[in-house]
Design brief:
It is a peripheral membrane protein. Helices cover 62% and strands 13% of the residues. By secondary structure, the protein is an alpha+beta fold. A hairpin with a 7-residue loop joins β10 and β11. It is elongated, with a radius of gyration of 61 Å.
Length: 725
Amino acid sequence: QVETLKAKLLEQAQEISRLRSELGGTDAEKHRDLLAAENERLRQEMKALEGELQRQQQAPCRDCPHLQENAELQEQLSQLQREAEETRARLVELDLEVQQKTNRLAEVELRLKDSLAERAEEEERLSRRLRDSQETIASLKSQPQQIKYIIKTVEVESAKVKQALCETQSRNQYLQEQVGMQKQVLKEMEQQLQSSQKMEAQLRAQIMMYEAELERAHGQMLEEMQAMEDEKNHAIEEAFSRAQVEMKAVHENLAGVRTNLLTLQPALRTLTHDYNSLKRQVRDFPLLLQETLRSARAEISQAIEEVHSTNRELLRKYRRELQLRKKCHNELVRLKGNIRVFGRVRPITKEDGEGPEAANAVTFDADDDAVLHLLHKGKQVSFELDKVFPPQASQEEVFQEVQALVTSCIDGYNVCIFAYGQTGAGKTYTMEGTAANPGINQRALQLLFSEVRGKAADWDYTITVSAAEIYNEALRDLLGKEPQEKLEIKLCPDGSGQLYVPGLTEFRVQSVEDINKVFEFGHIKRVTECTNLNEHSSRSHALLIVTVRGLDRSTGLRTTGKLNLVDLAGSERVGRSGAEGSRLREAQHINKSLSALGDVIYALRSRQGHVPFRNSKLTYLLQDSLSGDSKTLMMVQVSPAEKNTSETLCSLKFAERVRSVELGPVSRKAELGSWPSQEHLEVLKTLLGDSPGSSAPAGRGHASPSPGQLSSRSASIRRKLHTSG
């Protein structure tokens, strides 16, 4: 029961604290009523201010300076309206809060009534129990005397009676102990009741104190609102008075302006008269000006037309002379056997970086497509080649310039096209290209197939392809089963002085699909690595050898042409490329072979008796192409970036030296075959001038030609065939 009573006391304390927190509801209602009255008063003042502002706006002061003050007042008015709206919203929130607190207070009152009723019942029950306990204690107090009396009177009875007496005494002692315990419990309950009453009194005092604080805070808030209202009224009065003063000043300014206007009217009339006279003069002036301009324009147009016609004639003559000069130069190059040199400039790429180092240092001549200019260390250096391709030139445009050399391979001439330049300049792209935009190699073979199909009615052609690379001064077969096997370069045993590579694999190609397979097979085995200058740097010299063998079915004439397409590895500076280990050894071999190529070009240019072809596998393999028995074209690739100007300068200087080399006239590889058939005999008779119908059948009565006559006729036929070829 004591524990239950403690729990109920705790619940009552919680209810009292909740009531203490909820008692502010009535104050909130009062505060809401006050705010509502204040809001109504502010609304009335706002309406009055709006009426005053409307009256001021209706006054004739549209262009007055106090409009800004009116705008400020309107802004203050809109701010007051916003504050009123905020006050309304706050009132709505307070209404909701008061309603919620009222509902909660009603619930708390009901719970308090229930708890008070339960407490009254509990107190009543405890009081009844207390009374019962007191009665029990009183009855127990009266019983021991009777027991003593009995003990005294029956003291000499039997042992059984003594035993009963002892039990009664022990029971009496137990009851006394129970009575003591009940008294102690009752005392503790009375103390708890007193403490709860004291706590209730303290809580009531705190509630009264909180109510007083709420009243004081409410009074302070009302005083602050009154002060704000006074400040607002004072500000409105000051603004109104200031607006009146400014209105008065504006009216005075208007009066001054009107006076000035009255004084300025005579001057305006004078100016108007002067303006009309000037206007009449200006009206007559355009006629004279137009006449003068018309005559001047006619003279200028005539002079410009004469200059244009002269310029057009000069430009036409210059272009005709330029074409004639180029034609004569090409013919001179053909007759002398010079190495033709084309230059190609790659575009600026993201690998060149950004900033001054990636600036374009190469410019072109608008009137001459064989000249380019290089800006090196602040100085412009000009170079003249046979043809220069700008960065926007396509693969098709480049191939159009070299296709004449490629087709001469079908006629029995040896042709060599090799790309030279620093690493990353675009040599492999020019020679091989990509699958979507092929380079010279694949386009050359496609052109050969096209020419072969065009001559298929009279000629039988066989096209074979070989691919090799020179890696670290070792010649390797890219199409062989053992690409690591080193090959050697030897002289042909037929005494022709030509070079060949024993064991080099040859594939016969008959279609473009065969070409793609060969290129893919060879490209996989070629050595490429990543350096600081080029992500896919070629680490070897690649050589594509295309051999075209033809047979004229009508004359038996046999031709053999060879097309060497060489993609040289790029020269590089070890410090810039960051080559180490095997890359460093590769770079050393590449630079050594290119240096040997430079020595060969120098010896050829200076017409030395000994040309060091055997100093390198590269120059030894290119001996046929550089010794006067081949049509040779060098495609020099350069980078336009500012940071590569040193390498670009070296490449272009080397190209000029190569361009000045004279190899002599080129010979054609053709020989006359046997005449095994009757058709060949008919052709022979036709070439000798005999008609087919004049030849008599061979018989006993006709003498056969002598061996001398046959040998003389054979020599004559060979001369005619050579002349017609």
